[in-house]
Amino acid sequence: MITRRLMVRESGVVIPELVGSVSQALHAAGCALVEFTFDYIPLPCPGGAVGATELINLDLHCHSTHSDGTLRPDELVARAAQRGVEVLALTDHDDTGGLAEAHAAARRLGLRLIDGVEISVTWRGQTVHIVGLGIDPGNSILQTGLATTRAGRAARAEKMAAALDSLGIQGSLDGARALAENPQLVSRTHFARFLVQGGVVKDVKSAFKRFLGAGQPCFVPHQWANLADAVGWIKASGGMAVIAHPGRYPFDTGQLRDLLSEFRALGGAAIEVVTSSHKPHQYATYAAHARQYGLAASAGSDFHSPQESFHDLGQLPALPCGCVPVWNALGVS
Q1: CA 130, CA 324: separation in Å to the nearest integer?
Q2: Which residues, in sequence order, are CB contacts of 119 under 8 Å at separation 6+?
Q3: What are phi and psi of 90, to 5 degrees?
Q4: How far apart are the first and last CA of the chain?
Q5: What does each of the 333 residues of the chain score in pLDDT, given as a tens digit?
Q6: Are 58 and 314 in contact (CB under 8 A)?
Q7: How far apart are CA 173 and CA 161, in angstroms?
Q8: N or C: which end of the chain has fewer CB within 10 A?
Q9: Residue 320 C-beta-side C-alpha neighbours within 13 Å
Q10: Between vectors from CA 129 to CA 190 and to CA 289, what angle results, nearest 5°?
Q11: DSSP track, 40-86
């Protein structure tokens, strides 16, 4: 294996395609496999200004045991404080039950907590996640919508367990439930952790790749909320709707444009530009999309677990120059 490191500047969003072409040509010529890694170098802002997230250590996307994280809300806040995070948004999947505990910890530790949630949406047959920031967790419209979204998880979990049973992997439903602190939110991640604990796979990523991911034998499709409803619930609660980790979705350019256009027309406010799901060269790509569609830019680790997450809480790279930080509208400067 030959490793080549490329220094990717904001304007170099076409470099991944160039790298692919070079790799294919080398392979066709019988050369050794080449692996490329990327270093992200933000272009300097006019007047010497720094990138937005360099000014404050924040994280606007993470999860606790109230959904599929492994740390209780107070433990999550304590870890964030240890890492110097000044502003944190707890965004559990389809549930806001951890916010009160997180707020108590944040007050004790001198950290600002933003009320958040991450809503599961089905758009053109694909699951998309919409983060709500600055929500009112007591809003009845939001809570009714979240309860409806959670309602389908129990039946989905039973179907996943039946599929694992058919492969000779017994006890997965009870095992996944035992790993889920919130009984209303038994997810694929809890099944994945059960498989890891049982020695079936080496890690959560392998569990999704072999059993639980789309196209695998134990994947169970599900119809989540629609996009208009999810954005509407967030707005009704006074929050801002953000498309989470857009680089994770299997959309082509046209589909992504359609998603962003529809989202903006519904009153969507932002997209995540900096997230652990994005490679460094993608920051510029999604910053350009944000500017094109008049959306603010967000940044979050999508932290779930010290053992499983790609990026720990906070200490995120700077937003590319020209982005409008979503946290400006949340009173964070």
Answers
A1: 19
A2: 93, 94, 129, 130, 131, 132, 145, 146, 149, 224, 225, 230, 233, 234
A3: -90, 120
A4: 45
A5: 343 444 444 443 333 333 444 444 444 545 444 333 344 445 555 544 445 555 689 999 999 999 989 999 999 999 999 999 999 999 999 999 999 999 999 999 999 999 999 999 999 999 999 999 999 999 999 999 999 998 888 888 999 999 999 999 999 999 999 988 888 888 888 999 899 989 999 998 899 999 998 889 999 888 899 999 999 999 999 999 999 999 999 999 999 999 999 999 999 999 999 998 899 999 999 999 999 999 999 999 999 988 876 789 998 999 998 899 999 999 997
A6: yes
A7: 5
A8: N
A9: 28
A10: 140
A11: EEPPPPGGGPPPGGGGS-EE--B--TTTT-SS-HHHHHHHHHHTT-S
Which residue in this structure is represented by tokens 């009320």? Answer: 115
Domain residue spans in the chain?
A: 2-41, 58-151+223-330, 154-212
154-212 domain in CATH 1.10.150.650? yes
Instruction: Decide if 58-151+223-330 and 154-212 have a common fold.
Output: no
Q: Are 94 and 185 in contact (CB under 8 A)?
A: yes
Task: For residues 297 and 278, give the distance between their C-alpha atoms in angstroms, rounded to a whole number.
Answer: 14
Token readout for 294 is: 């008049």
Residue labelled with tokens 């802002």: 45
Give phi and psi for 274, each to the nearest 5.
-105, 115
Q: Does the reported pTM lie above 0.85? A: no
CATH number of 58-151+223-330: 3.20.20.140
